């Protein structure tokens, strides 16, 4: 069966949502050196969608992954879900914006996504969930962890995109 | 691919990385100063200040605001969460709070435990008599 370009594109987006979900679930089983540190492996699927299929695909993958992930982990519309959604959505927006700049590499796009994810979550925690500005003291630590985790996910994404390029050299 | 070469690095990255590293290195700037003796930890639930815990006496503090056990333990001037029924137990695995600005956060239960900024008594007097 030969798929039409639009169907092929949808199938690839659906595939990336599944990859994002599997990474999201896989991550919950990885022992963490710091309890609140998350590697954000699911962001790999969003980054690949951005560089492979464009910004609309990236936004679709991010939003569906967050909703379905929260549904399966029983967190849908809980405080944790709103933190996750605000972080994931704003991270995708900043990655899309930086992706448009030719002078910015994939690693920085990934790190900026991780930074934005942490900043958005902290902002929501400070002004809505806990209503206490003492939480801003966490900002430098969250920025530092975002540098590390963003580099890891960016590195993985770059490697996977190079492999994809070998198998699918033409644009969809 | 969407018609462009994928670069891992680019010149524009240097500026971005520089700014972020500068903020991280200046981390202590955000942290409250640790001038006086730490005496208490504050427990907030859903944005409301609920308890002041004395850090000088070793003791277990069950938080009675929840339907299942949520317990804090004070030991050697440090406070940590020892029991909670939240799904991921991030708060239970967080290291004990002992210095100004240290905190333990539980998002599902909206619990925030932190050690506030302390000021030396003689400093306070100086300000008053000023």
Account of the 3D structure:
The complex is a heterodimer of chains A (172) and B (130). Chain A has 172 residues and is mainly α. Chain A contains 6 helices and no strands. Chain A has helices at residues 5-27, 43-53, 55-72, 79-99, 106-129, 139-167. Chain A starts with a helix and ends in a 5-residue tail after the last helix. The model of chain A has no long low-confidence stretch (mean pLDDT 89). Chain B has helices spanning 12-25, 27-30, 90-93, 121-129, and strands at residues 40-45, 48-54, 59-62, 71-75, 78-83, 103-106, 111-114. Chain B is an alpha+beta fold. Helices cover 24% and strands 28% of the residues of chain B. Chain B contains 4 helices and 7 strands, in the order ααβββββαββα. Chain B is elongated and about 60 Å long. Mean pLDDT of chain B is 80; it is low at 120-130. The interface between A and B is large, with 51 and 40 residues.
Order of helices and strands of chain A: HHHHHH
Radius of gyration over C-alpha positions of chain B, nearest whole angstrom: 21 Å
Indicate the structural class of chain A.
mainly alpha
Strand order of the largest sheet of chain B: 2-1-7-6
First-residue to last-residue Cα separation of chain B? 68 Å
Shape verdict of chain B: elongated
Beta-strand residue fraction of chain A: under 5%
Helix-and-strand structural type of chain B? alpha+beta
**What percentage of residues of chain A falls in helices of 4 or more residues?**
over 70%
Portion of residues in beta strands of chain B equals 25-35%
Largest sheet of chain A: none
List segments of chain B where confidence is low: pLDDT < 50 over at least 5 consecutive residues: 120-130
């Amino acid at each position: 069966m030969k798929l039409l370009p639009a169907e092929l594109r949808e199938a690839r987006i659906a595939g990336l949502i599944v990859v994002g979900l599997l990474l999201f679930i896989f991550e919950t089983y990885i022992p963490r050196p710091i309890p609140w540190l998350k590697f954000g492996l699911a962001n790999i699927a969003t980054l690949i969608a951005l560089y492979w299929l464009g910004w609309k695909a990236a936004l679709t993958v991010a939003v569906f992954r967050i909703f379905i992930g929260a549904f399966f982990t029983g967190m849908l519309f809980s405080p944790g879900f709103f933190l996750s959604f605000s972080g994931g959505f704003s991270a995708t927006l900043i990655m899309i914006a930086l992706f448009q700049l030719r002078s910015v590499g994939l690693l920085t796009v990934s790190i900026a996504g991780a930074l934005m994810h942490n900043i958005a979550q902290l902002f929501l925690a400070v002004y809505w969930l806990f209503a206490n500005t003492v939480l801003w003291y966490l900002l430098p630590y969250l920025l530092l962890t975002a540098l590390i985790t963003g580099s890891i996910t960016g590195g993985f994404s770059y490697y996977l995109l190079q492999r994809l390029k070998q198998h699918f050299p033409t644009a969809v | 691919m969407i018609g462009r070469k994928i670069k891992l690095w680019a010149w524009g990255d240097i500026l971005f990385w520089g700014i972020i590293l500068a903020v991280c290195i200046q981390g202590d700037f955000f942290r409250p100063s640790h001038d006086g003796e730490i005496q208490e930890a504050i427990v907030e639930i859903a944005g409301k200040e609920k308890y002041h815990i004395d850090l000088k006496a070793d003791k277990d503090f069950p938080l009675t605001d929840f339907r299942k056990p949520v317990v804090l333990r004070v030991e050697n001037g440090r406070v940590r969460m020892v029991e909670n029924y939240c799904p991921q137990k991030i708060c239970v695995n967080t290291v004990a709070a002992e210095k100004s600005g240290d905190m333990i956060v539980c998002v599902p239960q909206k619990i925030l435990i932190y050690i506030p900024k302390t000021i030396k008594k003689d400093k306070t007097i100086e300000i008053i008599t000023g």
